[in-house]
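Lab notebook: predicted structure, single chain.

Context: the supervisor wants predicted structures on file for every construct in the current expression panel, including those that have not yet been purified. This is the next one on the list. No modifications to the sequence; it matches the entry in the shared construct table.
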Amino acid sequence: MNSVKIHGDDIVESVRSALQFISCYHPKDFLDHIHAAYEREQSPAAKRAIAQILVNSRMAALGKRPMCQDTGMVTVFASLGQDARIESDKPLDQLINQAVRLAYLDADNPLRASMVSDPLFERLNTRDNTPAVTHVELVSGADLKLTIAAKGFGSENKTRFTILNPGDCVADWVVDTVAGLGAGWCPPGVVAIGVGGSAEKAMLIAKRAVLDPLDMGELIRRGPANKIEELRLELYDRINSLGIGAQGLGGVTTVLDVKVATYPTHAASQPVALIPQCVANRHVHITLEGSGPIELPPPDLQDWPQVALDQTAHAARQVNINTLTREEMANWIPGETLLLSGKLLTGRDAAHKRIADMQKRGESLPVSFKNRLIYYVGPVEAVRDEAIGPAGPTTSFRMDKYTDMMLDLGLLGMVGKAERGDKTIASIAKHRAAYLAAVGGAAILVSRAIKKSTVIAFPDLGMEAIHEFEIEDMPVLVAVSPDGKSVHSSGPRAWSCKHKCVS
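Prediction complete. Output recorded below exactly as produced.
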């Protein structure tokens, strides 16, 4: 068979356009499954969260802007046919990095640069989201198949691995592990399990499996055809019975699908990897055959369900954060919706660490936190008439080790996503502060409440700089009230109990 030439420029353009595509458009199989979850959800808080995710997804598609502010680390699985030849003086990984650079610096739709060059010490942002992580395998054929994904790290940080004994129960380990993940991975999403091979093989097959098409609805309708499908159904039922629910607020759907991939392994071992995929389910599969770059047609907007946001939002408590007092906060009820207006500070990992270092050195801080709220966010750069780009919350748990310090500086509370640790909740109660939750996966919806954004400290940190947002009616939920009650504990516990009672 004659060799097929695939030009390097075609690879660059195909990957570039694919990354822009997946930043804005959910796959139809995901939309179908999350809409089905919305329809069957019984928890009011979880149903409202899923509604926000669906409305945000449609807004992303209409506006061609990122559905989530964490536009992810790029991972590419490349299958190169042995009868194909790449025509370029650059290796494949460099072509992919060139595409990432172009996609993330796109002037019309800039994506957030999150990669740091030195993972141990300086942790300086590369400013263009390179490098990608590229896996290449040689296969039969004369084409280049690419699976392109951009995975946010709220979910990637919840990846888990273990080596079980051959006789141990994989299902029990998976359910126990998911129960301990919390909500930082932004459920409802997909969980993939890789079993077998070696440590790295189990992780790789799980990472690939989490990008497979969602078919749980079909599997439930027709029933299992083999033991793997029986295991998928078992895990789907057991994980959802945990009651974690959308955003960890308690509900009937935590996972939309469960994937299981296997590979032969040593007789003395049973490696098991678990990889969750968040609601920003960004990936696409393309094939280059030497005939030019791949152009992905925009999806039909009819694919998006017409879901209305909670019409009771007008009854939510209006809060002016410029004049907020601890006495006013004492009346907040766990689980209630607040609409915040005023001036809101931002800050996340790097900013908190720098504040801590400055405190140790006895240096003056560039901003006062007394009687302020801080939002854990790393926004996307603004374009056109935007005050700021998509600006959804990041996982709050990472800031737990700084909470005492920030509350001692006079902070009234924090806005983020997912649960806080027990020590942090105790500190919040001690300071009569509060923790508020915004919906992860609703980054555009949140950003519509931001009317102005100004960088006021640490501009060198890029998206991790401290901003001051001027906000109007930003919807949040009281996740930890000033008396230390947490909805991320009470919600899942209540819905887990309801499942057990029904069962």
